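QUALITY CONTROL LOG
STEP: pairwise intake check
CHECKER ROLE: data steward
CRITERIA: each record must contain a sequence immediately followed by its structure tokens, with no blank fields

ENTRY 1 OF 2
RESULT FIELD BELOW
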Amino acid sequence: SEHPLEAKKHLASAVVETYHSRAAAEKTVEDWNARFSEKRLSDAELPGFPAQTADVVTIVVDAYAKGFALKKSRADARRLIEQGSVQLNGEKLRNPTAVVALESGQILRLDKTHALRIG
């Protein structure tokens, strides 16, 4: 019998292939594996976010809004930062008031499932 996670992957791939194409299904599986199974965000297809300089809370609130159309309050952003969820190129950003300069090519991870490529 197949492991439940493998069954979910096959089902998701079949759905994408039905509505798009086999190539799109294969690309989606590769992206999912890189992003979630292997934690290789640098190889994953990530939404873009403009380079800017601002305090970490402002960056997080803007990143959720522009990258994922999600509204996060400044308090939510502060909590994520203080918990160590927010990372820039793998380095945790724990000070909500710190001013950070985002540069092209960096990866900003907001939580377990949301990440953006700067540029």
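ENTRY 2 OF 2
RESULT FIELD BELOW
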Amino acid sequence: MDKFQEIKEYWSSFFSPYWPILTTQNELKDIEWLIQEVERLRAIEQAYEELKMTDTLKRNAKRLPGETSL
């Protein structure tokens, strides 16, 4: 199932009486943009988490044996 269909099914439960009105071309472009923005933000969040993990691993590798973290 594509992203648009997933979003449509989720939101249709809230907006079902209005859905035909909401699916004009401009709204479809807005929804597509929103999907891309969410995917971009998820990628940024994942990269940030990976960077934090890498930083933690580097700090842990520099510790002396027996030294504890704060």
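INTAKE CHECK: passed for both entries
DESCRIPTIVE NOTE, ENTRY 2: Helices lie at 3-15, 19-22, 25-62.
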